[in-house]
Amino acid sequence: MLTVRSPLARLAFLVMAFALPAACGGAGQPPTETLQAPESSAASGAPAASVPAAPGQTVQVRIVNFAFDPAELTIPAGTTVVWTNEDQAPHTVTSVDGSFRSDGNLATGDVYRFTFTTPGTFAYICAIHGSMKATVVVTSGRSY
Predict the structure, then answer these.
(1) Range 32-139 has CATH code 3.40.50.10330
(2) Whose C-alpha in 78, 82, 83, 125 is 20 to 30 A from the C-alpha of 133?
(3) Per-residue pLDDT averaged across 85-111, rounded?
């Protein structure tokens, strides 16, 4: 599993993460805290990730090695999940029930954001690669 990221790539991501919302009119909104889910869950088969988050926070899901990492995520309602495609191949983020989907294919480095406002279990797939499956469990309160 290749997980090397150059400092320049990290800097570019941070600049885009903060500059793009400001350029799109998001500068007047309060900042949100970004939480990184454990990196090894999808690749190692480790238990699902339950990321401590409060409503309004952001949680990252990596698309890497033709898998969503983490493959299962538990978050409170009001949390935004940001998927980032780190693979060389294009992917999608497509809910099984039709409640969310990325706009077209995500190329390398592309991101898709969705804020979960309703408690429930949301299965999703990559519409291009049907073996890529994952789940977001949304609770009504704080997740631990």
Answers:
(1) no
(2) 78
(3) 97
| Four-residue CA torsion sign, 15, 17, 23, 26 | negative
- Cα–Cα distance for residue pair 42/64, rounded to 1 Å: 9
Q: Round to whole Å and give the CA distance between 37 and 39.
A: 6
pLDDT digits (tens, 9 = 90+) for 31-51: 333 344 434 344 434 346 665
Is 62 a residue whose pLDDT tops 70?
A: yes
